[in-house]
Amino acid sequence: MKTIRLGDEAPDFTAQTTMGEINFHQWLGESWGVLFSHPADYTPVCTTELGETAKLHSEFEKRNVKVMAVSVDGMESHRGWIHDINETQHTEVNFPLIADEDRKVATLYDMIHPNADDKMTVRSVFVIGPDKKVKLTLTYPASTGRNFAEILRVIDSLQLTAYHKVATPVNWEQGDECVILPSITDEVAATEFPKGFKEIKPYLRMTPQPNL
Ligand code: BEZ
Questions:
Q1: Which fold has domain 164-207?
Q2: Which among 1, 46, 61, 183 is most buried, taking Cβ atoms within 10 Å?
């Protein structure tokens, strides 16, 4: 197991999931991916997180993102728990959940942090690009449920900045102004950003979101 850093290739694996055996890279295909771990089945925070992920299915689909969850419990446990999630969160879990009993995926992605808990996975999130490279990592403790609106927001930024010479400023959301990359000269910016840009400082130039 090695620490996974931004820009690394996302480790590939074949795993048993609630939607059958899946080879991760093949399953991702040309899509973006989110792989995220949970401490355990039948736990309250995880129940809300998986329910919310299911409800956001169309938001992920709109962004060409496939979602897969990991927990170190077995298939039978997963199936019973998914029944509970569907019932209590008023949704239908519509993405694969890995039954990672041998901790193969958890180990590959360093999702068990022994100083936090030596058995359960922490709440890890990996966003993976169509090139299979890791674009974002997040690590939350078991006690703190994630904000999936933030995960969608960050995917919007990752996808925008992958294709345009901009970065997104503090608290950016779809439709907000972007900053022009410092490596872009004013001359190049003038052609690259036909909607124009304003220079607040030579290193701080704002332009309307270029893909709208
Ligand atoms: C939960 O998902 O609710 C949870 C799991 C482990 C520890 C604390 C909370």
A1: Antioxidant, Horf6; Chain A, domain 2 (3.30.1020)
A2: 46
